[in-house]
Amino acid sequence: MSLVTVHDKTFCTYLTEKDIQARIVQMAEAINKDYQGKKPLFIGILNGAFMFASDLFKHLTIEAEITFIKLASYKGMKSTGNVVTSIGLDHDLYGRDVVIIEDIIDTGKTLHKFLPQLDHQQPASLKIAVLLHKPEALQHPLNIDYVGFSIPNKFVVGFGLDYNGLGRNLKEIYQLDGNNE
Ligand SMILES: O=P(O)(O)OC[C@H]1O[C@H](OP(=O)(O)OP(=O)(O)O)[C@H](O)[C@@H]1O
Ligand SMILES: Nc1nc2[nH]cnc2c(=O)[nH]1
């Protein structure tokens, strides 16, 4: 197990690069199977999902499009509850098969606030693919179709996820060390 320091906090390895990549391949295989013969539109939620979206997309063998939107609500380790959209959607979703790509679902507030906006455009289907899910933290019921890892309710960094802007470039996922919460 290795430790990293990001700003004032110490984090320890939770998921290795190998674990993450192997799981992403399995998720892509499930999506390839479910969307055979369709041309889904993937919507990555920036910033955190950029790395997961990129790796997942590389393993898709179906015809697929991808776009990104930018939503944010976290300051430090806490959700502000205020989901701000700073880059909006540039595609018409009417009649499309849509798959949201998220790095993490924690309280569920971000998607709870955003999904009705997508539903309003009447996509043919709307599914969610998320790398990390914290079931104990969820405050809003969400149907999550593809989950990489269900994880404990501890703050994580790495593989796209930041602590106050830093740590996104780490190849592994690290969990807040119990001693400095
Ligand atoms: O389920 P929730 O409690 O709403 O948390 C999940 C959201 O938190 C993170 O975004 P953040 O607001 O940190 O922005 P970022 O992706 O730019 O880091 C993450 O990328 C999700 O979008
Ligand atoms: N970096 C990071 N961002 C989050 N957004 C929601 N939960 C988390 C988390 O555990 N880590």
Describe this structure in words.
It holds the Pfam family Pribosyltran. Its cofactor is Mg(2+). GO terms for molecular function: hypoxanthine phosphoribosyltransferase activity; magnesium ion binding; nucleotide binding. InterPro entries: HGPRT, Hxn_phspho_trans, PRTase-like, PRTase_dom. This protein is an alpha/beta fold and 181 residues long. The chain has a single domain, classed as Rossmann fold, CATH 3.40.50.2020. Helices cover 21% and strands 37% of the residues. Strand 1 (3-6) and strand 2 form a beta hairpin. It starts with a strand and ends in a 5-residue tail after the last strand. The model has no long low-confidence stretch (mean pLDDT 95). The structure holds 1-O-pyrophosphono-5-O-phosphono-alpha-D-ribofuranose (PRP) and guanine. Residues 74, 104, 106, 155-157, 161-163 line the site of guanine.
Concise account of the structure shown:
The chain is α/β, with parallel strands linked by helices. Helix content is 21%, strand content 37%. Helix 1 (17-34) packs across helix 2.
Write out the distinct hetero groups bound to the structure: 1-O-pyrophosphono-5-O-phosphono-alpha-D-ribofuranose, guanine
CATH architectural group: 3-Layer(aba) Sandwich
Q: What Rg is obtained from the alpha carbons, in whole angstroms?
A: 16 Å
Helix share, percent? 10-25%
Q: Determine the mean pLDDT.
A: 95
Strand runs, count: 10
Q: How is the biggest beta sheet arranged?
A: 6 strands, mixed
Distance between the termini: 18 Å
Strand order of the largest sheet: 5-4-3-6-7-8
β-strand percent reads: 35-45%
The CATH first-level class comes to Alpha Beta
How many helices? 3
Number of domains: 1
Main location: cytoplasm
Pfam family, one: Pribosyltran
Subcellular location: Cytoplasm
Cofactor: Mg(2+)
